[in-house]
Design brief:
With 248 residues, the chain is α+β, with helices and mostly antiparallel strands. Helices cover 38% and strands 14% of the residues. The chain contains 10 helices and 6 strands; from the N terminus they run αβαβααβαβββααααα. A hairpin with a 6-residue loop joins β4 and β5. α1 packs antiparallel against α4. The chain is globular. It starts with a helix and ends with a helix.
């Protein structure tokens, strides 16, 4: 019920992933990985509510509209808690507001580092949200495929929930190609961003995932940060692997 109360306001902003799980399960996983410092607060509870926040293609429309309405094309607002990337600024603000609505919490964002770092891919795996691919550095959701962006993880001073079973690989037929591509890239210092798009598209080569692929503008912004992609009517310059992905 607590998590459900957050989902409506988040969904209105295009933030469609608010996935409940057990913080103790995540903390055990990071400890097993040799990094207990990545643990989140358990608030003195034997079972603590955790929520993993993320976005899909559905965030793009509300985000671009917000950027235009608030004059962010030149840059986001300034402030002590502001982030120089308009996308992070937009998502972080909505996640902070949602987390605050549930009271005492500990929230870590995907761009946090040092003592605030949290392993988002491992959290998605432990939470039963998505399959964590061992070589592609991506999570693959059973419905939207790899077309999701993990944003934050939070623990709340609330009773925990049972963590769902792990997600099986939604697209195992892609692994030979993915493994070959990753092996070919090993040691490379500069990899064209379109190469990562191709691998992402290959891992999303199943019916429901193809329906959730990012638009050309969203892909360009996601991988390059080019703010021209935030302009209405932006067209990715050809030749573009992006168009191939989105027309599949």
């Amino acid at each position: 019920v607590a998590v459900q109360s957050m989902r409506g306001p988040l969904a209105a902003a295009g933030i469609t992933i608010a996935h409940a799980f057990s913080i103790q399960a995540y903390n055990a996983a990071v400890a097993e990985s040799g990094h207990p410092e990545w643990a989140l607060a358990e608030h003195g509870r034997p079972a603590t509510l955790g929520v993993l926040f993320g976005t899909t293609a559905e965030v793009w429309g509300p985000f671009v509209a917000h950027v235009g309405a608030h004059g962010w094309l030149a840059g986001p607002r300034l402030g002590a808690d502001a982030h120089p990337d308009p996308f992070y600024e937009y998502v972080d603000g909505h996640v902070r507001a949602a987390a605050a609505s549930l009271g005492t919490h500990d929230v870590r964002f995907v761009h946090d580092s040092g003592s605030r770092f949290a392993h988002m891919l491992l959290a998605a795996e432990v939470a039963g949200l998505a399959y964590r691919h061992p070589t592609a550095f991506l999570c693959v959701h059973p419905v939207v495929g790899p077309w999701l962006t993990l944003a934050a993880i939070a623990s709340f001073d609330l009773p925990g929930v049972d963590t769902p079973q792990s997600v099986p690989h939604p697209c195992p037929q892609a692994d030979p190609e993915i493994d070959a591509r990753m092996a070919a890239l090993r040691g490379s210092t500069r990899v064209p961003w379109t190469e990562w798009v191709r691998m992402r598209a290959r891992l999303g080569d199943f019916p429901t995932a193809r329906q959730h692929a990012y638009s050309p503008a969203q892909l360009v912004y996601h991988y390059t940060g080019n703010r021209a992609a935030l302009q209405p009517g932006f067209i990715a310059p050809p030749p573009s692997d992006v168009g191939l992905v989105c027309s599949a």
